Amino acid sequence: MSSKQRLTVVPSRMTLQQVKAKLAGAKKGHSMLKKKSDALLVRFRAILSDILRNKEAAGEESREAMLALALAKYAFGDELKHVVIENVDDASMKVKMSPDNVAGVTIPVFSKFGARVTDADGNDSAGKGTASLAGLSKGGQQIGDARTAFADTLDLLVKLASLQTSFIILDEAIKLTNRRVNALENVVKPRLENTISYVLSELDEMEREEFFRLKLIQNKKEKARLAEQGEKLKEERKLALTGFDPAKFAGDDASKPSIIDAHTGADPDLLF
After folding, report:
1. Can you name the residues that pair with 109 across neighbouring β-strands?
2. Model pTM score
3. Residue 112 in contact with residue 158, Cβ under 8 Å?
4. Helices (DSSP H) in the chain: which residue ranges?
5. Which pLDDT belongs to residue 272?
6. Where does the record place the region Disordered (predicted)?
7. H or E segment to which residue 110 belongs
8. Among residues 114, 120, 63, which one has the least CA distance to residue 93?
9. How far is residue 61's CA from residue 67's CA, in Å, rounded to a whole number?
10. Across the strands, what pairs with 98?
11. Using alpha carbons only, what angle is made at residue 256 by residues 251 and 261, rounded to the nearest 5 degrees?
């Protein structure tokens, strides 16, 4: 979109004040959204580094857990799967979600709850029923190691899921915020600034037209005044040359001398 575009407005002082108020609001909104975008980007980069680190750790933990499971199966035998399934009543670990606020964006944080029961040796027991007695006759150590390894892997996967979800939400929020920042910076602000320039130029042109109109009126009045003064000056010169003053003959018509008498200077009483 071209930055030369402007709003279609009627140029006036009130319109100028309104557009200036809109421009001030756009600048303030642009500044706030820019700060929000920077804050989201900082958190986004921190989460990205945590995801990379946890993914590498999750791969290592998963490899160790599968190796521990293979050792447990080798020590206990093929009945391990059936023993585990028979002794599971309900989940010993559950996942809960708590919200976190980052610059106005709510992201979910997943965490495990539910006690992990450990035995005297520090190994993780199943926690309920007879699952803690699995492998008592043979392979108990390998089963306990496998249980601990998978519990650690589960903790890491829950944390990784929380980071991955936050990563996706922050990515969308950053894109949306950047679109708004770019729209304010490249479309709204230039359009308002061009509108202000247009209104100012139109107001200046109106002032110049008004000044020119006043000068024309003043010149016409001055010409009329000079013309009136010229007429008065002509009358005064004519009166000075002829000696005839029309103001003296404003009375009766009988007492008014004729134009000839006035020009010849003769007395009308002497003619009769």
Report:
1. 98
2. 0.61
3. yes
4. 13-76, 80-86, 140-183, 189-242, 259-264
5. 41
6. 248-272
7. strand 105-113
8. 114
9. 10
10. 109
11. 155
* CA 162/CA 160 separation, integer angstroms: 5
Total residue count of the chain as it appears in this document? 272
205's CB contacts (< 8 A; 6+ apart) are: none
Give 105's contacts (C-beta < 8 A, 6+ positions apart): 40, 169, 170, 173
Residue 209 and residue 115: Cα distance in Å, rounded?
86
The count of other CB atoms within 10 Å of the CB of residue 99 is: 8
- Determine contact, residues 167/47, Cβ cutoff 8 Å: yes
Which residues have CB under 8 Å from 96's CB, separation 6+? 110, 111, 112, 113
Q: Which two tokens stand for residue 22?
A: 């809109």
Q: What is the 3-state secondary structure (H, E, C) of 176-234?
A: HHHHHHHHHHHHHHHHHHHHHHHHHHHHHHHHHHHHHHHHHHHHHHHHHHHHHHHHHHH
Q: Identify the pLDDT of residue 80.
A: 65
Question: Which pLDDT score, from 0 to 100, does residue 8 have?
Answer: 80
* Spatial CA neighbour of 5 closest among 167, 198, 142, 175: 198
Residue 124 DSSP symbol: B
What's the chain's Rg over C-alpha atoms? Answer: 51
8 within 8 A of 198, measured Cβ to Cβ: no
CA 116 to chain CA mean position, Å: 48
- What does pLDDT average to in each consecutive run of 10 residues of the chain (272 residues)? 66 89 92 92 91 86 82 70 66 81 87 60 46 53 79 87 91 93 92 91 89 90 88 81 60 49 48 42
Per CATH, which fold does 13-198 belong to? Answer: Helix Hairpins (1.10.287)
Joined together, the tokens standing for residue 207 give 């002032």
